[in-house]
Amino acid sequence: MLPMKIIVTGATGTIGSAVAREPAGRGHAVVHAAGPGPVRVDPAHP
Q1: CA distance 19 to 1
Q2: pTM, whole model, 2 decimals?
Q3: What pLDDT, on a 0 to 100 scale, did the predictor assign at position 23?
C-alpha cells in the first residue's frame, strides 16, 4: 500500500493521540490538527 497523508483532528487529546499512532506506525504521514478554529486543507499543496 502506498503511504498516505492523514489528518487527525483532536490529535493532542487522549483518544486522538492513540488514533494518530496507528497510521503513523504503518508508515503513513499524520498531520495533527488541534486547537480552536477551522481546519483548512489545500489539496493542491499536500
Answers
A1: 19
A2: 0.63
A3: 92
The answer to whether 8 touches 30, Cβ cutoff 8 Å, is: yes
**23-30: which pairs have CB atoms within 8 A and are 24 or more residues apart?**
27/3, 28/3, 28/4, 29/3, 29/4, 29/5, 30/5, 30/6
C-alpha cell at 19: 488514533
| C-alpha cell recorded at residue 33 | 490538527
| Cell numbers for 1 | 500500500
Tell me the pLDDT tens digit for each residue of 1-46: 788 988 888 888 899 889 999 999 999 998 887 777 777 777 676 5
